[in-house]
Design a protein that fits this description.
Number of domains: 1
Organism: Vibrio gazogenes
Membrane topology: Multi-pass membrane protein
Domain EamA: 5-135, 150-282
Distance between the termini: 18 Å
Helix content: over 70%
Oligomer: single chain
Number of strands: 0
Strand content: under 5%
Structural class: mainly alpha
InterPro entries: AA-Vitamin_Transporters, EamA_dom, EmrE-like
Subcellular location: Membrane
Length: 298
């Protein structure tokens, strides 16, 4: 199980790198096309990997389940969260999205038969959330953005949708993680593409190689490869531990911005990192590991 900490950090690093590449992609592409390109390229990456590695589906999970997970994992949050961000600052939005682990804990007893949440899991989620709050405290205290109650509600509903999807992912039977990742991302790609076609999108007037390569990176790494790693972590450590990636992603994002974009890293960032590392360490308890394992294979 030591491998789960490496996977957690690697997933946080890859997803944390998405922000700087999305910023480059936005110089040429509208957000809707970036989302579609990311999902489709990610699906094709996993499809090719399945062929190269000769991984075949065991057929133990219904496509209805994959479509439902795709709806909860992508279509709903990808629609509600950007809409909600129109009414709140990026700092507040990040903290609201950080409630995903709380929703995982809330829905685990309802969706996972015979599951029990250990005290160390609850403590890790709470401490990690405090780390996330400290990371974005300056922006919150500065009062960035206007407050509209509908905005936070939309983001919280999106976070709850992510949490439910995370729990459902652990119910994909004994299917290979690569197949699960491929099928879920394929379902999500189809749904996002349909939403984009229905709502309409403005095509870019000019393209740059940096923007195209950024979308390719977002698809291959931040959708394809990382989603495969995400499925492995769920199978090995359970949904609650996996949900801690939501605390690592913004932290890595800030550090990557500091290294490559010379963005400022204050004392609050180091405090956030320390709290998040403490939160992850709480999951080393034997009771927590047993609980997570029973959830992952229930």
């Amino acid at each position: 199980m030591k491998n789960k900490y490496f996977l957690l950090a690697l997933i946080g690093l890859i997803w944390g790198s998405q922000f700087i590449f999305q910023k480059i992609a936005l110089t040429a592409f509208p957000p809707q096309l970036i989302g579609v390109g990311r999902a489709v390229v990610g699906f094709l990456t996993l499809f090719i990997l399945c062929k190269i590695l000769k991984v075949n589906s065991r057929g133990t999970t219904s496509w209805v389940i994959y479509m439902l997970i795709g709806l909860l994992e992508a279509s709903i949050p990808f629609t509600l969260i950007p809409w909600g961000q129109q009414y709140v600052s990026s700092s507040i939005a990040s903290v609201l999205i950080g409630t995903i682990p709380f929703f995982v804990i809330l829905f685990t007893p309802l969706l996972t038969h015979g599951s029990k949440i250990s005290r160390s899991s609850i403590l890790s989620v709470v401490v990690g959330f405090l780390g996330l709050v400290s990371l974005f405290a300056p922006g919150i205290l500065a009062g960035e953005g206007s407050i509209n109650i509908l905005g936070p509600i939309a983001i919280l509903v999106g976070a709850a949708s992510f949490g439910i999807a995370l729990l459902l992912l652990s119910k994909c039977g004994d299917e290979h993680p690569l197949i699960v990742a491929r099928n879920v991302l394929g379902s999500a790609s189809l749904q996002i593409l349909l939403i984009t076609l229905v709502t309409g999108v403005k095509l870019p007037s000019s393209l740059t190689s940096d923007a195209i390569l950024s979308v390719a990176y977002l698809g291959v790494m931040c959708a394809g490869i990382v989603y495969f790693l995400y499925m492995i972590l769920i199978a090995e450590a359970g949904p609650i531990f996996t949900s801690l990636t939501n605390y690592l992603v913004p932290t890595f994002g800030v550090f990557i911005g500091f290294v490559f974009a010379q963005e400022n890293v204050g004392l609050n960032t180091w405090i956030a990192l320390l709290l998040i590392l403490i939160a992850v360490a709480f999951n080393q308890g034997s009771g927590s590991n047993k609980t997570e394992s029973s959830q992952a294979h229930s």
